[in-house]
Design goal:
This protein has 4 helices and 10 strands. It is an alpha+beta fold. Helix 2 packs antiparallel against helix 4. The chain is extended.
Length: 174
């Protein structure tokens, strides 16, 4: 029995339950579980090849040609002195040291060191050398550290990509 009280319609509990059930989707209304088709990869259609993309990137960061050009700049290397700080929480005392950096796009080698050249690091894609005074030695642990900086240097990344023999171009769809 339906009652109207001050403009509101009150339905009996059975009618309300029936209304809710009719609004819920039934098994016949829900789509069957679909399986995704296997991924298909094919050559990228009529797009610039990888070498053209690398050339565009080199032009964007002003490398004259990935293989020529030298970039020289002054930088500052900051070291956080956690063990010498007056507190056990950040910010710690920092020590900044000036450095000169030279990147040679022809070889992919970067020099970073003291402005006077007395000490520094010579790093490439596969090895790192450390110079102290007149002594030069390979540093495998130093190479791990310099690679993190190298991956953030667009000149180094583009030069490494341009020198890479293997390039794969494809478009994959599911």
């Amino acid at each position: 029995m339906t009652q109207i009280t001050e403009g509101l319609v009150r339905l009996p509990a059975a009618a309300f339950t029936l209304l809710l059930l009719s609004a819920a989707p039934t098994a016949a209304q829900t789509p069957a579980t679909r399986t995704s088709p296997p991924e298909q990869c094919r050559a990228a259609p009529a797009s610039p090849d990888a070498h053209e993309w690398i050339a565009r990137a080199a032009a964007a960061v002003r490398i004259p040609d990935p293989g020529t050009g030298v970039l020289r700049y002054q930088a500052s290397t900051t070291t956080m002195l956690r063990d010498q700080s007056d507190r056990t929480y950040p910010p710690f005392i920092a020590a900044a040291a000036p450095s000169t950096r030279v990147f040679d796009a022809a070889t992919g080698v970067e020099w970073s060191g003291a402005p006077d050249g007395s000490r520094g690091v010579l790093s490439a894609a596969r090895s790192t050398w450390v110079k102290r005074g007149d002594a030069v030695a390979e540093s495998r642990t130093g190479h791990t550290r310099t690679q993190a900086d190298r991956y953030l240097d667009p000149w180094a990344v583009i030069t490494d990509w341009a020198a890479s023999p293997g390039t794969v171009e494809a478009s994959c769809t599911t």
